[in-house]
Amino acid sequence: MTPAIQISGLSFSYPNQPPVLQELSFTIHPGERVGLIGPNGAGKSTLFLSICGLLQPTSGEILLCGKPVQKGEFRSEIGLVFQNPNDQLFCPSVQDDVAFGPENLGLSTAEIEYRVKEALAVTGIQKLAQRVPHHLSGGQKCMVAIAGVLAMQPQVILYDEPSANLDLRSRRRLIDFLQEAGEGRRQEAGGRRQERSLQETIIISSHDLELIIEVCDRVLLLDEGKLFADGNPTEIIRNQQLMEAHGLEKLVL
Q1: Within a 13 Å sphere around the CA of 77, how many CA atoms are in the beta-carbon half?
Q2: φ, ψ dihedrals at 163, nearest 5°
Q3: What domains, with CATH codes, occur in the chain?
Q4: What is the pLDDT of residues 214-240, one digit of tens each?
Q5: Closest CA to 174 of 218, 137, 221, 134
Q6: Could you report how far apart the first and last alpha carbons of the chain are, in Å?
Q7: Which helix (H) or strand (E) holds 139?
Q8: What are the tens digits of pLDDT across the range 32-78?
């Protein structure tokens, strides 16, 4: 099976700055739910931007679904959910925001309508379709941003601090949604009915260790641009010596 993401010897430096990523190598397989943890400045966001082709690595290679990532090249196989939904939402209505991506793929009107209805149904925000995005709560904006990415039907989704600034109820709803991302769910939209598999490969960058434990089946610990741990989330996050050595708190389970 072709890996969803394969990274080999990846390094990156901003001009006249020390390395942000240093010789990273790891493989993520289709359907995996991977947590990316580490202190501020560890290189997590830079890694995401590199995978999306927004930054040019200093050295090394990134393969997305078996094909090399090239800076500036649009790849429909991957989607990024921003930490701040306000950076992602800009249309006059929720429906327009969710439709923006499919419209730019040049799809038919019927396919765009179907994808929008399906994404709204999957995220449970059908009633918000005609609302103005910037009039919504933080939790609602988060789900709209996710719906916009889902409508593109990517194979890999990167979530950058998805629970940041959410209240407890919104955070729980987000966790429930992400937990269900590995299960099949039957959806009906626009008169079409199909079995929709939500088994996208997901990588979640977060300081919310409880979310990582509940959602992910694997965790990567990044610090100073280097990979220090790769394995079972519970084992890594409960390792007090390891966590404290990299500026993180052990999670008591």
Answers
A1: 17
A2: -95, 0
A3: 1-74+203-253 (3.40.50.300), 78-153+156-199 (3.40.50.300)
A4: 999 999 999 999 999 999 999 999 999
A5: 137
A6: 35
A7: helix 138-150
A8: 999 999 999 999 999 999 999 999 999 999 999 999 999 999 999 99
| Maximum alpha-carbon separation in the chain | 56
Q: Please, how many CA atoms are within 13 Å of residue 106, restricted to the half-sphere of its CB?
A: 1
Closest CA to 159 of 217, 82, 49, 236: 82
Q: Which two tokens stand for residue 202?
A: 């997901």
* Angle subtended at Cα 25 by Cα 20 and Cα 27, rounded to the nearest 5 degrees: 125
> Taking a C-beta distance cutoff of 8 angstroms, is the pair 116, 151 a contact?
yes
pTM above 0.85, yes or no: yes
Residue 25 φ/ψ, nearest 5 degrees: -145, 125
Chain-centroid distance of CA 80 in Å reads 5
E-assigned strands of the chain?
A: 5-13, 19-28, 33-37, 59-64, 67-68, 78-81, 156-160, 184-189, 192-197, 201-205, 218-223, 226-231
Q: Which residues of 195-206 are buried (b: 16+ CB within 10 A; e: fewer)?
A: ebebebbbbbbb
Contact 46, 228 (CB under 8 A): no
SS3 46: helix
Q: Give the C-alpha separation, 83 to 47, whole Å.
A: 14
211 alpha-carbon distance from chain centroid: 13
Compute and round to an integer the Cα radius of gyration of the chain: 18
